[in-house]
Amino acid sequence: MINRGAIKNICLFTLIWILLNEKLNGFVVLSGIFFSVISLYFTDKVLLGKSYSQLFHIPFTTILAYLIYLIFQIFKSGLTAIPKVIKGDCRVKIVDYHTPLNSQLAISLLANAITLTPGTITIEKKGNILSILCFDDEEITDDPELTTTFSKYEQILGSLKS
Amino acid sequence: MNFLELVLCGIAIYTVFSIIRVLLGPSIWDRLLCLNVVSAKIIMAIVLLSVISNQDYLLDIALIYAFLGFLGTVLIARFIEKRGD
Amino acid sequence: MIFLWLGRFFIIFSMIFMLIGIIGLFRFKDFYLRILISAKIETVGLLAMLIGLIILSGVSFASLKILLIGLVLMFTNPLASHAIARSARVNGYLSPWEKIDD
């Protein structure tokens, strides 16, 4: 039951507990470790039935690269969406995008990133086919060669195993 | 008048216009979308108020409001998707 | 001094973005265009505002807590807009131009 992933998760939860308390002393650290162990044990036994630490295992460098690229990308496509508001009239379409990722967690993170950028929204996810709502004049097709933005996310998230 | 207080007044004006859009929207999904925008504005106003008046406990309220606004939006969207079943 | 002006730059940037989002909410007649552009531009403004406030308040517990609020919003806001778009699509809410085509 006690492995490296669980210890990492307990450290992370204790850090968030210290952040919420806004002070750092012995009592806060001890109670943080106590509540982290209790909540992790409760999640494993009652809510999931499996090991949380193995199911949602994301390396720290992967999530950092993902967040930095995501923030850069949403500011960039926010700036390109301004002329569309000034122009005032566009059409939308729905395309199916076939992703080569095979881990469910990685596909969910990709759908999250697609929805957060202005101009594209994921409507439905079936297996590894995503239905994406986008503008009519953008070139998002089934062919993965054309969509360089998505393939950068897939390159970042490709190290996750299912 | 401070710079941040001026920004807070601007956010209040934006919130009023978003609420007018909530009242105008023809279908329930339009109202839900604009309600999401209003909730984002309220979170922003609470964080700004906390930075202006230098009181940290307001940030906890903003965090809880973020979770509750998300939960309410998703619940109503899922509820009307199944038509109340 | 440079941090003060960098934070103010981010806050003014976010106010301009939110103004454009509000204009878009009133200007577009189509629900799907509104959810594609306006609501998302609002999210960009929200994140820019939080980054500016983090820079203005310096290194403290308060700025770390604002960072936590930003992370929570980055993972919950897409879920909310996905739920709204999917609910409208499943119930067959059409755009005005789709009604003309049929």
Structural account:
The complex is a heterotrimer of chains A (162), B (85) and C (102). By secondary structure, chain A is of the alpha+beta class. Chain A has two domains: 4-55, no CATH class; 60-157, no CATH class. Chain A has helices spanning 4-21, 26-48, 52-55, 60-87, 104-116, 148-157, and strands spanning 92-98, 120-126, 129-135. Chain A has a three-stranded antiparallel sheet with strand order 1-3-2, covered by helices on one side. In chain A, helix 5 crosses helix 6. Chain A is elongated. The mean pLDDT of chain A is 81. Chain B is built from three helices and no strands. Chain B has helices at 3-24, 28-53, 57-81. Chain B has 85 residues and is an all-alpha fold. The N and C termini of chain B lie far apart (52 Å). Chain B has one domain (3-81). In chain B, helix 1 (3-24) runs antiparallel to helix 2 (28-53) and helix 2 packs antiparallel against helix 3 (57-81). With 102 residues, chain C is mainly α. Chain C has one domain. Chain C is 87% helix and 0% strand. Chain C has helices at 2-27, 31-57, 61-90, 96-101. In chain C, helix 1 runs antiparallel to helix 2 and helix 2 (31-57) runs antiparallel to helix 3 (61-90). Chain C is elongated and about 55 Å long. The model of chain C has no long low-confidence stretch (mean pLDDT 85). At the B-C interface, helix 1, helix 2 and helix 3 of B face helix 1, helix 2 and helix 3 of C.
